[in-house]
């Protein structure tokens, strides 16, 4: 396997927040090495993936050395803080062509997989196991081409301050929730609301900053995104050189039919303000403006 292919494969592995290196193991499958992450029943693993595309989850139960019967097991998936999806796999026995590395007890179960289609934008996907058997998990993501679409910027209501950024020599308007209250908009669906967020970095800040953005539709929580901000290399403030904008992170919020109140806010007490940009498809804007 080439070094480039190994790097790409490593980047596609499950990222487990707060996990140590011992949470991963290299299994031998039909004579080839494959890296898996171990999902203990009390641990949550998080994937952060930018769509659109197909996410495939490959799982193997950790069975006893001499199992007496086939073992059922399950996986729980929660996307963007929404409803839990329980995935129940058919009972499995040990895989004849798979083995654990030295030091890992038991035998790998037969492979079970599940596919999830992801829409446009960033997604936070939480995974944890159910049942008595730990699960070994790896994933593969196949991106698909985005459908070209014309988007039009809309202005949120309330006390918001306009903050112009220069992005690749173009002036792009963003909005800051100056009152530290949620952004609020009225949107008529069915449509998609495109949301871009950025954190504001101090001039001496380096590295990554984790933050969360929560979306309410008609005052009901529908999405909670776990995001990571880094200083942008291509964006700067038009009139303010004391701060550095973070990289833009895109999310797409499906809006059902009818008129709906949308609220967007940061839910981290130490990061109460956001830079945000809201867009609707051009064909949907006329309805919202009525």
Task: Describe the secondary-structure layout.
Elements: H1 3-11, E1 24-29, E2 32-39, E3 45-63, E4 71-79, E5 84-92, E6 98-99, E7 107-108, E8 112-130, E9 135-143, E10 151-154, E11 161-167, E12 170-176, E13 183-198, E14 200-201, E15 209-217, E16 220-229, E17 235-237, E18 244-245, E19 249-266, E20 275-281, H2 282-289
Antiparallel strand pairs: 1-2, 1-6, 2-9, 3-7, 3-8, 3-9, 4-5, 4-8, 10-20, 11-12, 11-17, 12-20, 13-19, 13-20, 14-18, 15-16, 15-19
Can you describe what's shown?
The N and C termini lie far apart (58 Å). The chain has two domains: 3-143, Jelly Rolls (Sandwich); 151-289, Jelly Rolls. It has helices at residues 3-11, 282-289; strands spanning 24-29, 32-39, 45-63, 71-79, 84-92, 98-99, 107-108, 112-130, 135-143, 151-154, 161-167, 170-176, 183-198, 200-201, 209-217, 220-229, 235-237, 244-245, 249-266, 275-281. The chain contains two helices and 20 strands. The strands form three sheets. Strands 1, 2, 3, 4, 5, 6, 7, 8 and 9 form a nine-stranded antiparallel sheet that branches. Strands 10, 11, 12, 13, 15, 16, 17, 19 and 20 form a nine-stranded antiparallel sheet that branches. The protein is mainly β and 290 residues long. A hairpin with a 2-residue loop joins strand 15 (209-217) and strand 16 (220-229). The radius of gyration is 22 Å and the shape is elongated. The chain is 6% helix and 58% strand.
Give a brief outline of the structure:
The protein has 290 residues and is mainly beta.
């Amino acid at each position: 396997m080439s070094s480039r292919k190994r790097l790409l494969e490593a980047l596609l592995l499950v990222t487990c927040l707060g996990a140590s290196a011992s949470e991963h193991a290299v299994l031998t499958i039909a004579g080839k090495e494959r890296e898996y992450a171990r999902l203990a029943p009390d641990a949550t693993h998080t994937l952060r993936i930018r769509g659109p595309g197909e996410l495939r989850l490959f799982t193997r139960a950790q069975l006893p050395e001499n199992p007496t019967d086939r073992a059922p097991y399950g996986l729980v998936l929660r996307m963007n803080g929404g409803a839990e999806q329980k995935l129940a796999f058919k009972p499995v026995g040990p895989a004849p062509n798979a083995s654990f590395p030295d030091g890992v007890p038991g035998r790998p179960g037969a492979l079970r997989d599940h596919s999830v289609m992801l829409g446009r934008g960033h997604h936070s996907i939480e995974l944890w196991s159910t049942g008595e058997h730990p699960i070994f998990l790896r994933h593969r993501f196949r991106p698909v081409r985005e459908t070209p679409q014309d988007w039009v910027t809309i202005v949120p209501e309330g006390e918001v301050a306009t903050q112009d950024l220069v992005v690749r020599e173009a002036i792009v308007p963003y909005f800051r929730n100056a009152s530290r209250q949620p952004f609020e908009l009225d949107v008529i669906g069915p449509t998609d609301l495109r949301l871009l967020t950025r954190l504001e970095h101090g001039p001496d800040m380096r590295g990554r900053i984790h933050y969360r953005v929560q979306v309410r539709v008609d005052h009901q929580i529908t999405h909670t995104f776990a995001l990571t901000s880094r200083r942008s290399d291509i964006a700067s403030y038009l009139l303010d050189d004391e701060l550095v904008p973070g990289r833009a992170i895109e999310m797409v919020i499906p809006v059902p039919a009818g008129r709906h109140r949308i609220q967007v806010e940061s839910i981290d007490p130490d990061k109460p303000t956001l830079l945000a940009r809201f867009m609707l498809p051009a064909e949907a804007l006329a309805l919202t403006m009525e």
